[in-house]
Amino acid sequence: MNVAVIGTGYVGLVSGTCFAELGNQVICVDNVQEKVDRLNENEIPIYEPGLEELVGKNKAENRLSFTTDIGMAVRESDIILIAVGTPETETGAADMSFVYKVAEEIGRAVNDTYKVIVNKSTVPVGTSEAVQQIIEKQQPEADIDVCSVPEFLREGSAVKDTFHPDRVVIGASSIRASDMLEELHQPLTGQIVVTDPRSSEMIKYASNAFLATKISFINEMANICDIYEADVNAVARGMGLDHRIGPKFLKAGIGYGGSCFPKDVKALKYLAEEKDYHPSLLQAVNDVNEQQNRRMIEHLTRIFDDDIEGLTIAVLGLAFKPNTDDIREAPALKIIEDLDAKGANVQAFDPVAVDNAKQMITADVHYADTALDALKDADAAFLVTEWAECKALTASQFKEQLKRPVVIDGRNALDPGIMKAEGIIYHGIGRK
Ligand code: UDX
């Protein structure tokens, strides 16, 4: 099939590359010339395991190309995937301007051959209809269907998730469109669920909101475990063996980050409130997440009698989770901002996210080359992202390198028993 993918961010670049690998002819479009030039030189703008090789291979085999020419890409294709950003606005609503602009451009380019336009971006319920109207305003005779096929890939395992999704949701506005989209997705291993576009758009928000709820729930349990000296890891294990609950997304920690959960929980809340429904559960999920970060900082400051001015804190991990260089909504950003505001010096380590972090962090941070270097002469260590390099630090390394043996473990990634046996003042989340 001939496929155009508009937007070469995480979703667009990974989906386009994987569809090319499955034998389709794929044109990826981005409006940033420099990004397109770099992709044509095999320079991948994001860190994503396995992606670089796959882009190189499919380009070499002439199934994958990159361009800024959206009109050409639309005219050449039967299926057009919209995969541009829908960032958060000040109100919490999703910013739809990029999607709508692309819809207008598609409208200007469609010719008289039938095309299926697919929203892959996470979008408010009703967007498929809005995009259809925008295109038809440009071309009243356009022979198109606009559908919703949300993306569920996780950063860090995006290629694997794309080939082996748990499910593919197709929100189709006609049988003709759903047949074409089923054919495109057939080689993927997940079950295909066909529904209407609005339900499909809602499935995406509901899925992310549910996963975020699981995280905030276990974080709340961890906070209660802290008070009553129970161990949240044992609690999660005991809960997760119940098949109705399941073991995944019950890892207590510093709170969820990334480009999806924080934004999507707020966007769904906004959608409900727009129609006068006040979703108190979503509000609570968001509140617990924001407080979690602050609670961890409080653990640290309490140890130093609420005065960390002039102290040096080693921040281990900057990315919002391991195996990615993405620092959007990463807990480390707020933590560093907070430490800086309290007058502490920060020496940070991350194996791949330092360049991205430097663009976001205004504080004067010293970036260390290794996790061990970050500990040198610091007064305390704060583990923020559970990178293998950070988890591999031993209790004796913490003890030898730190000026004071204080470790705050924002991911429950270290063993409290071993830490305490080494004489370290250790604080995880909800651990005895
Ligand atoms: C998420 C969804 O999983 C994916 O389906 C959707 O397409 C995009 O959003 P992603 O943001 O890449 O993917 O990361 P994910 O692995 O889901 O983690 C999100 C955040 O939750 C991270 O900050 C992670 O550290 C945190 N998390 C996850 C926990 O704190 N505890 C857990 O048990 C699981």
Structure, explained:
By secondary structure, the chain is α/β, with parallel strands linked by helices. The chain has 2 domains: 2-195, NAD(P)-binding Rossmann-like Domain (Rossmann fold, 3-Layer(aba) Sandwich); 261-427, 3-Layer(aba) Sandwich (Rossmann fold), CATH 3.40.50. The chain contains 18 helices and 14 strands. The chain has helices at 10-21, 33-40, 51-60, 70-76, 97-109, 127-138, 158-163, 175-185, 197-228, 232-240, 261-274, 280-303, 331-341, 354-360, 371-375, 388-391, 395-401, 416-421; strands at 2-6, 25-29, 64-67, 79-82, 115-119, 144-148, 167-171, 191-195, 312-316, 345-349, 365-367, 380-383, 406-409, 425-427. A 6-stranded parallel beta sheet has the order 3-2-1-4-5-6, with helices on both faces. A 6-stranded parallel beta sheet has the order 11-10-9-12-13-14. Helix 5 links the parallel strand 4 (79-82) and strand 5. Helix 9 packs parallel to helix 12 (280-303). The protein is elongated. The relative contact order is 0.09. Bound molecules: uridine-5'-diphosphate-xylopyranose. The site of uridine-5'-diphosphate-xylopyranose has 19 residues, from helix 9. Uridine-5'-diphosphate-xylopyranose binds at residues 151-155, 208, 211, 215, 249-251, 253, 256-258, 260-261, 320-321. Belongs to the UDP-glucose/GDP-mannose dehydrogenase family.
